[in-house]
Structure formats: structure tokens, C-alpha cells
Amino acid sequence: MLCGGGLLSACRHESKPQTERDPNAPTVLLQGTFESVAKPARGRAEIVRTGERYELHLYGARVDSQRPVRVYLVGVDRAPTTRSVADAELKYDMAELDQDAAHQIISLPSEPNPAIRSVVLWEPTFYVNLAFAPLDPPGSSAAAE
């Protein structure tokens, strides 16, 4: 191994100072992949904190529906049925899904309640759960699946 001056010279490794994490850098708090319920769906969802702001990011979120679809945050671990959403004590209608957007960002009014564990794609005309994304912290076994 050659380090600087010659074959037998001592190698000196310079350590770079560790930089502290920028508190305003985006941090993914929860994430999940959409699962079909009443209609085929795809895409993923993330709840992201940037400084004091909280946002719901939808990546490639699509569901097979010609009608308007609403995006709900729901306080259940998994929402595989319409009834699971209807019976949930916590549910928030956040926005209309933009199925033409590769990346849709929905501002949240505050830090989400820790009980919020699913993003649901909801068909309001017929009151039907079309798809849901169970939310888990990044790196958890459920989020890695």
C-alpha cells in the first residue's frame, strides 16, 4: 500500500469532522405502500417533517377510479375494508388525489396525531375504501416489506 512518501512510510488517516444533522432537512417519519381494497392501486405514501412543517407525500399514487378520490389520514394500523375506515375514531379528509402527479405534496396543519397509521384512498360518492397504505417508521420490518 502506498501512502504519500513511499512503500514503508506511515499512513496518516485524516478524519473529517462530523457534521450535525440540519434540523430543517426533510425527515421521513412514517411510510407505506398502497394496497388494493376495492380497486387496483399502486404508489407509496410518506409523512415528512421539514423543520416545523409536516407534509404528506404521495409518490405515484394511483387507483383505478374515474371518479374523484379523496386522501384520508386514518387512525387504524391497517384499513383493509370500508368498515375499518367508517368505524375509525380518527379520520381526516386531507385533499383530492391528483392521479396525474408523480409526486403530490399535501400540507398538514400540524404534527399528526401518533394514532394516525394509514393513508386511505376514499371514493366519497359511494363511500368506499379503494386502497390504503399502512404507515410504519422507516427501517421497521413492516416498512421494509
Folded structure, characterized:
The chain starts with 26 loop residues before the first strand and ends with a helix. The protein has one domain. The chain is globular and about 50 Å long. It is mainly β and 145 residues long. The N terminus is likely disordered.
Q: Give a quick account of the main beta sheet: strands, pairing sense, barrel closure.
A: 5 strands, antiparallel
Total number of domains: 1
Number of contiguous helices: 2
Q: What is Rg?
A: 21 Å
Helix content: under 10%
How many strands? 9
Structural class: mainly beta
The stretches of 5 or more residues where confidence is low (pLDDT under 50) are 1-18
Summarize the structure.
Helices cover 6% and strands 41% of the residues. The protein has 145 residues and is mainly beta. It has a five-stranded antiparallel beta sheet.
What are the main properties of this structure?
145 residues; mainly beta; five-stranded antiparallel β-sheet; 2 helices; 9 strands; globular
Task: Write the SSE topology.
Layout: E1 27-33, E2 35-36, E3 41-50, E4 53-63, E5 70-74, H1 82-86, E6 91-96, E7 103-108, E8 118-123, E9 128-134, H2 141-144
Antiparallel strand pairs: 1-3, 2-9, 3-4, 4-7, 5-6, 5-8, 8-9
